[in-house]
Write a structure and sequence with these properties.
elongated; alpha+beta; five-stranded mixed sheet; four-stranded antiparallel sheet
Length: 246
């Protein structure tokens, strides 16, 4: 009896392995077919990075950079939208994009950031901000209402005008943190830059390109989660409370 059971188990395992192998083989041509079809129909500059099965039968996820789209098995249609799991109340597309855009907080060059804190500063966030960004100014004011927070601000002058001059002047001020807060919160012009000063602004621009930060403010949390755009103090508190719990 034991021998028969062992034989049956081995046969079942072999059948499962064969099925998985055939599925994998079938998946390769399917992915290739989708890539070929979309490549012919989309702008040639659109590089398809990944093609994977989507959570819905017959639907495939297409990743182009950090953008997620969906298509059919023939690559005849391209869908821009979100997949919501109504049973679990989860936004699957949003979760996927969050993973794609995550930034390793520990790898950030914090020496290139303006730093200030509230209370103990036990909790940490990094922010990419332009000194002339209105939403950045609103966010900076909201930060004053969040307890025990350390803020690392990477000056990112992407709005043009005198943004680069302001960013460099703030960094090169005697107290960069005070100059940054004075300008962003109280609208006090940063002191004029006299002479030369080694500024990390250009490195910050390269850092933003590396992580595809295309707008300000962009907020990065310790677990790598990033949020584009400003948050109110309550929204930030909620996000901080969930750090590391997913």
């Amino acid at each position: 009896m034991k021998f028969k059971t062992a034989v049956l188990a081995a046969a079942t395992a072999a059948a499962i392995a064969t099925t998985l192998a055939l599925t994998a083989v079938a998946q390769v041509p399917q992915e290739a077919a989708i890539r070929k079809a979309l490549g012919e129909r989309l702008n040639s500059s659109a590089k398809i990075d990944e093609v994977n099965k989507a959570p819905i039968a017959g639907l495939f996820e297409v990743r182009i950079g950090n953008d997620v789209f969906y298509t059919d098995a023939e690559g005849a249609y391209l869908i821009r939208g979100e997949i919501l799991d109504l049973k679990t109340k989860r936004n699957l597309t949003e979760e996927r994009v969050a993973k794609l855009t995550a930034i390793d907080f520990g790898s950030l060059p914090l020496k290139d950031a303006v730093v200030w804190k509230t209370g103990t500063g036990a909790r940490k966030i990094a922010v990419f901000a332009d000194p002339n960004c209105g939403y950045c100014k609103r966010f900076e004011k909201e930060l004053s209402n969040v307890k025990d927070l350390t803020v690392y601000t990477f000056l990112l002058p992407i709005l043009g005008g005198d943004s680069p001059d302001k960013a460099n002047a703030i960094w090169c001020a005697k107290d960069a943190s005070a100059a940054w807060r004075a300008w962003m919160v109280d609208n006090v012009q940063p002191p004029k830059l006299l002479g030369t000063c080694a500024s990390p602004v250009e490195r910050n621009v390269e850092l933003s390109r590396k992580h595809r930060v295309n707008g300000t403010p962009a907020i990065v949390f310790e677990d790598g989660t990033r949020v584009p755009g400003m948050l109110t103090a309550p929204q930030l508190e909620k996000q901080l409370a969930g750090v590391g719990k997913s």
